[in-house]
Design a protein that fits this description.
With about 270 residues, the chain is of the alpha/beta class. It is built from eight helices and seven strands; from the N terminus they run βαβαβαβααβαβαβα. Strands 3-2-1-4-5-6-7 form a seven-stranded parallel β-sheet, sandwiched between helices. The longest helix is centred in the middle third of the chain and has 21 residues. It starts with 6 loop residues before the first strand and ends with a helix. The model has no long low-confidence stretch (mean pLDDT about 95). The protein binds nicotinamide-adenine-dinucleotide (NAD).
Length: about 270
């Protein structure tokens, strides 16, 4: 897909991977719509994008609220006529064992990481289909959506769901010429460890229950722009999985082996 003159929408575009995606698309000549909770952050990214010669809109959006994502889609289509690339990327992380996860942890993390993606699908897909132009949807999951690490269970649950949703969406939308990629990074140098900054007051834990120290990820921490480059290549090549780290191979292989062993060693 040649992105020149096309329109991209990036949720969580004020920081980290989303920021890098928005600026990468802008460098390719695509107009960008940045949707985030962080008004100052997204305005700064929009200004940077404009400096690259494209049109950019920053629209404050809480992706956990369907009405806000519907409003985002309506504004994006109204402003640019079509949306060719949608990145459902906004996400948050909460750490700690599942035995101590609070109901608020579940509501917050699933609200953003899973419902945020579902809302993106609900609001944008019907409009993309009606428009009839080739398009691509990138959902940000994580390596935590393919292999479960200890101490990250609420997050893992949200990301496994995003992988399942994306794998199915790719099949369902093929006939409409809408491609789907699911981004599964390991460590990336972003502000994800400061996710609590985005937790709404009603979903904050009353005591210091739940939560825990951020899990130390294995492997290298990539620069967000390197990840954005891989996403762009996946959009162009219509590749479903964007697995950013070579270090992912070993845990993925071990998981596949465990599944195979379960079948082979099952009582018959
Ligand atoms: N950084 C990593 O190591 C890593 C690894 C795997 C997956 N991811 C995923 O990458 C995505 C981007 O995160 P990041 O690492 O760039 O972190 P980040 O904290 O730098 O950026 C996340 C952005 O999402 C926004 N956001 C949070 N809640 C929101 C909401 N309810 N509505 C709209 N925007 C909201 C934040 O304001 C922020 O701008 C997330 O889905 C995250 O789970 C990150």
């Amino acid at each position: 897909m040649d992105l020149r003159g096309k329109t991209s929408v990036v949720t969580g575009g004020a920081s980290g991977i989303g920021r890098a995606l928005a600026l990468r698309f802008a460098r390719e000549g695509a107009n960008v719509v940045i949707a985030d909770l962080d008004a100052a952050g997204m305005e700064a990214v929009a200004a940077e994008a404009r400096g690259l010669g494209v049109k950019a809109l920053a629209l404050r959006t809480d992706v956990s609220e369907l009405a806000q994502v519907e409003a985002l889609a309506a504004r994006a289509f109204e402003a640019f006529g079509a949306v060719h690339v949608l990145c459902n990327n906004a996400g948050v992380a909460a750490w700690g064992g599942l035995e101590s996860a609070t109901h608020r942890d579940w509501q917050w993390v699933l609200g953003v990481n899973l419902w945020g993606v579902i809302h993106g699908v609900e609001a944008f897909v019907p409009r993309m289909i009606a428009r009839g132009e080739p398009a691509h949807i990138v959902n940000t999951a994580s390596m935590a959506g393919l292999v479960a690490s200890k101490g990250l269970g609420v997050y893992n649950t949200s990301k496994y769901a995003v992988v399942g949703l994306s794998e199915t969406l790719a099949k369902d939308l093929k006939a409409y010429r809408i491609g789907v990629s699911v981004l599964c990074p390991m460590g990336v140098e972003t502000r994800i460890r400061e996710s609590e900054r985005n937790r709404p007051a009603p979903l904050r834990n009353e005591r210091a229950e739940g939560g825990g120290e951020p899990v130390e990820l294995i492997g290298r921490y990539l620069a967000p722009d390197a990840v954005a480059g891989m996403v762009l290549a996946a959009i162009r090549g219509n590749e479903l999985y964007v697995i950013t780290h070579d270090e992912a191979l070993e845990p993925l292989r071990r998981r596949a082996e465990r599944l195979e062993r379960a079948v082979r060693s099952r009582a018959r």
